[in-house]
Amino acid sequence: MIFLAGFYGWSDAGMVSTETVRYILSSFNPHLIKEIKGYNVITHTRPYFLIDGGLIKSVKEPSTNFFLCEKKGFIVSIGFEPDLRWGEYVEEIFGLLEANKVNRIFTIGSMYDRVSHRKAQRISIVTSKENLREEPDCGVVNYHGPGSIHSFIIYESRKRNLDATTFWFSVPAYIPNVVYYPAVLSALEFLSRRIGFSINLDDPRRIAKEQLDGLEKQIQIDLNFKKLIEEIEGEKIIVQ
After folding, report:
1. How far apart are CA 54 and CA 43, in angstroms?
2. Engineering a disulfide at 121: which of 105, 112, 186, 222 sits with its beta carbon 3.0 to 4.6 angstroms away?
3. What is the value of pTM for the model shown?
4. For residue 237, what pLDDT is reported?
5. Alpha carbon distance 153, 158 (integer Å)
6. Residues of the chain whose pLDDT is less than 70?
7. Strand residue runs (E) in the chain
8. CA distances from 213 to 18, 170, 182 (A)
9. Could you give the residue ranges of the DSSP H alpha helices within 51-195?
10. How far apart, in whole angstroms, are the C-alpha atoms of residue 69 and residue 75?
């Protein structure tokens, strides 16, 4: 059994992490098997209220939801990156994974980066074991600084001797706060090969092309934008 996770928040640049997971869930027939709550500061990640005609109908706290795609052999989760008690949070996750005999863990993150939309998708990885670092078309992360729940899950997996990898998809820093479909498409194609499932990608492929065509039109009319792209494409990548 495989576990795949995506998170809203700091590690969701261009909404690549969550949109990728949402698309996978919409393509299969999963059922909810667990919901984790109580790990978010609700003044930062506020509850979702339904108010109709001045009457409170419902309220939904920030949570992480876990879905079983039984026929495909994997569990998929989506939720808000926790603010509080990361140790307790991952203990709940690993309890669920152990109960379902999960033996491989993947998480998807996305970050704003100094990359060009005209170049091949940059994918970087962090893993729990030496032998997992050889991933085709991926670079290894060299980094020190504030981290995400992705890295914490990988760290805890290492302590438990579990196979775990987080894949980070770079999003051009000049992209506005919208879903960046070229990276979503890349993530879906990559995961379908890596995990081994077939999925219809006609819609994300169409939207990704529309976004890239729009950026090319902007280059033609905005000389400053054209100069920025040329500068980025002329830089040498030293560290993933």
Report:
1. 22
2. 186
3. 0.89
4. 60
5. 9
6. 237-240
7. 2-8, 31-37, 48-52, 55-60, 63-69, 74-80, 104-113, 123-127, 139-140, 163-172
8. 24, 19, 11
9. 86-99, 149-159, 181-191
10. 6
